[in-house]
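User: I've been trying to design a sequence by hand for this structure and keep getting stuck. Would you show me what you'd pick, starting by listing the structure so we're on the same page?

Assistant: Good idea, let's start from the same input. This is the structure you sent:
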């Protein structure tokens, strides 16, 4: 629960790590449709923390809504990043929650537990694997904590040294650090339809696509929201719905067989016949009303692009271009069935 008090709390996301074991700065490492840094910023924002200060290496941009601070010397270690981050917290904030960008499984519930433990000590830290560490809530009175840190070893060691100043909070489960691509694989799970890897997602509502993971379905929900809010995005809605559907064909049953067939016909008529959307709509509605029995088409094993790629667009124009590329890549992946679908598409065109 967020109390009134919590309006005065900021977040500091430490993402300046060089990512030597990733081969590039970890802040930009992709996870689902987001980045490691984006996940941490979203979690802090959802917990009601404001502003969210993100400490990044030079050349790494911060997600919209975050306040970027560049650590030009990431080699100087965590202590420098922490000093820069706490230094950027506005003076009217009573406390800050420090998060690491490489702990993407830290959720809003844990941050709320830290907030709920305020009042007894100037520092509240998470017990991870028996050791006190981030995420850590630091009251303003203890901001000089950062000055006591030197180099890269730091926070966990320092917390161990001042047990009287720290309230420990138990997380719901272990909090793995993501240092390598293999770590990233361990904390994510593939969507059964498009195979995109997402952090496990607790769905608020059951989703109608049995062929998608809850996290993938939620990502498609974000795309849908953009298309409904902004006409520049909205004109691609018919096509993104078709492409998403054939990337998540689900199981061989009557409803799914029809769904896959009709959406593939619509994609074929869009890309190969350049049919206007109104005509595609009319044709698929007519096909849906017929009592035709459609065969099951064995779906491709993987796709070159997923809905997570399409979410990267920041303008309607870029969105349109990405949806088209997504459509072409997906149509290509279904090439084993092109002849069948082309026959259906031509037949439906002739019947109109
Ligand atoms: Zn998916």
């Amino acid at each position: 629960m967020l109390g009134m008090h919590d309006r005065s709390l900021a977040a500091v996301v430490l993402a300046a790590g060089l990512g030597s074991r990733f081969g590039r700065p970890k802040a930009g490492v992709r996870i689902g449709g987001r980045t490691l840094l984006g996940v941490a910023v979203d979690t802090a924002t959802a917990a009601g923390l404001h502003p969210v200060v993100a400490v990044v290496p030079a050349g790494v941009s911060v997600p919209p809504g975050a306040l970027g601070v560049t650590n030009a010397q990431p080699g100087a270690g965590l202590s420098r990043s922490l000093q820069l981050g706490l230094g950027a917290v506005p003076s009217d904030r009573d406390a800050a929650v420090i998060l690491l960008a490489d702990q993407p499984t830290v959720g809003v519930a844990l941050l709320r537990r830290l907030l709920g433990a305020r009042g007894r000590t100037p520092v509240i830290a998470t017990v991870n694997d028996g050791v006190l560490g981030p995420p850590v809530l630091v009251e303003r009175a203890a901001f000089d904590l950062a000055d006591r840190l030197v180099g890269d070893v730091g926070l966990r060691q320092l917390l161990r040294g001042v047990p009287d100043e720290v309230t420990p909070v138990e997380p719901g489960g272990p909090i793995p650090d993501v240092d390598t691509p293999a770590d990233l694989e361990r904390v994510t799970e593939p969507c059964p339809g498009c195979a995109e890897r997402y952090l496990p997602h607790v769905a608020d509502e059951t989703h109608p696509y049995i062929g998608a993971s809850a996290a993938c379905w939620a990502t498609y929900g974000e795309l849908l929201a953009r298309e409904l809010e902004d006409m520049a995005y909205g004109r691609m809605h018919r096509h993104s719905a078709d492409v998403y559907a054939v990337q998540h064909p689900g199981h061989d049953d009557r409803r799914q067989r029809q769904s896959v067939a009709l959406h593939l016909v619509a994609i074929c008529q869009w890309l190969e016949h350049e049919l206007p959307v109104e005509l595609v709509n009319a044709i698929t509605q007519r096909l849906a009303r017929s009592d035709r029995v459609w065969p099951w088409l064995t779906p491709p094993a993987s796709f070159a692009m997923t809905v997570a790629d399409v979410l990267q667009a920041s303008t309607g124009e870029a969105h349109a271009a990405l949806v088209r590329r997504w459509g072409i890549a997906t149509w290509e992946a279904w090439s084993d069935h092109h002849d069948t679908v082309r026959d259906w598409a031509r037949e439906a065109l002739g019947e109109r």
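That's my pick for every position. To get oriented when you compare it with your attempt: The pocket of zinc ion is lined by residues 191, 193-194, 196, 212, 216, 248 (CB under 6 Å). Confidence is low (pLDDT under 50) at residues 1-5.
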